[in-house]
Design goal:
Blueprint: H1 4-14, E1 17-19, H2 27-40, E2 45-49, H3 53-62, E3 64-72, H4 77-86, E4 92-93, E5 99-105, H5 128-171, H6 176-182, H7 188-198, H8 210-226
Helix pairs in contact: 6-8, 7-8
């Protein structure tokens, strides 16, 4: 069955990069074979996994492992990394830009030791088109998450600035007139909440005019501020 790794390898080959996944193949032998194939098929270069006995153990025990791939020549590093990223892999970048790491599961490693398109199974259960759709969905989800995070951060910043502005505006209120101006469009229930915070007074909401309630709220707020207190206007 074609896996995401096989699909990625086909994309590499389409770009002229011969991929290999001979994890248990001696490096010298692997490189020699790949150099010959690159020359024969007039390819730009090749990519192969760096042998590590611990990696093989991790695949057997945990089912997945971090595998480092080396690109030859180095000039193909950026192109190879870009292909893996477009196919949905999270890349661990190398500082010297000759190697990079990917997480691979044991179920993905059903690709040939040295991968050429001519070696693909023609009776494959899963077409490249189906794999491509899965890759596109995976990439779309990543993009959507990034966009959502950016929007959330912008909204949070706006809310924070609004809260800061509101606190600064409220802190400047001192006189009854200033508080009345602030309460101009406040509904009765919010004004009664403010009154309840500053006194034990009981005011009947339905039987008392809004203007009377607003005046009393303004008086209490002004008195409280003038005596050195801080008014919480979050109703």
């Amino acid at each position: 069955m074609t896996t995401l790794l096989s699909y990625t390898f086909s994309k590499l080959q389409n770009s002229g990069i011969l991929p290999s996944f001979g994890l248990d193949v001696p490096q010298d032998e692997n490189k020699k074979q790949m150099i010959e194939i690159v020359k024969t098929h007039n390819l730009k270069g090749y990519i192969y996994p760096i042998y590590n006995a611990e990696t093989l153990e991790e695949l057997d025990e945990d089912g997945s492992a971090l595998i480092f791939l080396e690109v030859v020549p180095e000039t193909l590093w950026g192109e190879a990394v870009s292909i893996f990223e477009k196919c949905g892999y999270n890349i661990l970048h190398s500082k010297n830009k000759t190697k990079f790491g990917i997480i691979v599961s044991d179920s993905e490693i059903d690709v040939h030791t040295t991968y050429l398109r001519t070696e693909l199974d023609v009776n494959d259960d899963q077409s490249e088109g189906e794999i491509e759709k899965k890759v596109e969905k995976k990439v779309e989800k990543k993009v959507e998450k990034k966009v959502e995070k950016k929007v959330e951060k912008k909204v949070e910043k706006k809310l924070h600035h609004k809260q800061v502005d509101a606190i600064e505006r409220n802190a400047s209120l001192r006189t009854i007139e200033e508080f009345l101006s602030r309460f101009k469009r406040w509904p009765k229930r919010h004004l009664l909440t403010i009154i309840g915070k500053l006194s034990d007074e009981t005011i009947t909401r339905n039987q008392t005019l809004r203007s009377v309630i607003a005046n009393r709220a303004a008086e209490l707020c002004s008195e409280h501020v003038m005596s050195g207190g801080v008014v919480d206007l979050s109703a």
